[in-house]
Amino acid sequence: MRWKSALALVVVILLAVLGWRLLPRSAQVGGPGMRGGGAEAPIPVTVVAAATTDVPVYLSALGTAQALNTVNVNAQVSGQIKTIAFTEGQEIAQGALIAEIDPRTYQAALDQALAKKQQDEAQLVAAKATLARYEDLIKKNFVAAQELQNQRQTVAQQQALIAADDAAIASARTQLGYTKITAPITGIAGIRQVDVGNLVSANSGSPIVVLTQVHPINVIFTLPQQHLGEVRGASGELPVSALDRGDAHVLAQGVLKVVDNTIDTQTGTFKLKAEFGNADNALWPGQFVNVRLQTRTVHGGLVIPVQAVQRGPDSSYVYLLQPDNTVMMQTITIGGEGGELGMLVTDGLKPGDKVVTEGQFRLKPGAKVLPLAPGESAPTMTAEELKKAATPGQRRRGG
């Protein structure tokens, strides 16, 4: 029976050898695409050199667009709406007709005031004629002095009545003018609140329409109180950019107009207001935007891409490429945001130092890397070839 045991052992060995030969090559060496020791292969990363340039320093915040002026257009006299003369959503010029109230009642009141003045003017003419006659007769002692004085008072009373008539006419004319409701400012018309035929009351709570002035337009934003001195100490009008929510596109350019006079004790922030021309209506009241306030320009500043900066518990740091193509954690001091140029570095780096901008999540201090230029893809190599490529000065065999 010993020959049967030996035969079984031979079969098991053959099956093991066959299974090993059928395994994928990657499984035999410990990982896909890494022939010859994948754990030692360098990590492909993108690196960018720190460069010096003139750097505009920005403060960033979240802001809200706000109309320069907002007006609730109400009726100033009561009556029935006769005409609606605007289109919702259109820009209405200052003084343009918005709506008209039935004017007949107010026209009748004006006509009545005019007629009353004509009546009083006629009585004044008669009183003046009588006064002139009395002044002639008093010289001949045909009229008592008291009668002359009474007539003078009558003329004065008629003159006062005419002055009152003038005031009544002006009031009636003003009331009639209020039946034509015009735009007090140039602005965008919102959704109308009343229709033709509705009765409206003077200065009621519900407006006919709301006008918002968007040329120019304001953006309100806040900054932490530690930046107050930097903002107030800057000279001239500070430029402000409004960007979309993705921080990818500049929507409008404006200037800082107001720094609020108090700091919010609950949030430790202060408010600012910037003004934008907004000729293309890129900003709209109530819109949230990212605000970038330029406070100064650093000449010959050192900048690196924003993606290179990592945030630690105590400070910021970058992965700095070493001559042997390893990386180390380098603590840096940030001097501000440089917009599209990147981050301004005031300490920890020097011009020409290469920092990792992509692939940091796989790194640790001392890790071996394969440095790539921005946009460059890692080549398809064996682990041995990758190690050779990652070792400066080493030439390939046969090369």
Polypeptide structure, described:
Residues 24-38 and 394-399 have low confidence and may be disordered. 27% of the residues lie in helices and 36% in strands. It has helices spanning 2-22, 25-29, 104-137, 145-177, 228-233, 383-390, and strands at residues 43-49, 51-73, 79-84, 91-92, 97-101, 180-182, 187-189, 199-200, 209-224, 239-243, 250-264, 269-276, 288-304, 310-311, 316-321, 327-337, 343-347, 354-358, 369-372. Among the domains are: 40-56 and 300-376, conserved putative lor/sdh protein from methanococcus maripaludis s2 fold (Beta Barrel), CATH 2.40.420; 103-178, Helix Hairpins (Orthogonal Bundle). With 399 residues, the chain is of the alpha+beta class. Helix 3 (104-137) runs antiparallel to helix 4. A hairpin with a 4-residue loop joins strand 11 (250-264) and strand 12. The chain starts with a helix and ends in a 9-residue tail after the last helix. The strands form 3 sheets. The chain has a 6-stranded antiparallel beta barrel. A 4-stranded antiparallel β-sheet has the order 6-5-3-8, with no helix packed on it.
Major sheet: arrangement of strands: 2-9-12-11-10-13
> Which structural category fits the helices and strands?
alpha+beta
Distance between the termini: 61 Å
> In which range does the helix fraction lie?
25-40%
Share of β-strand residues: 35-45%
General shape: elongated
Stretches where pLDDT is under 50 for at least 5 consecutive residues are: 24-38, 394-399
Tally of individual helices: 6
Largest sheet: 6 strands, antiparallel, barrel
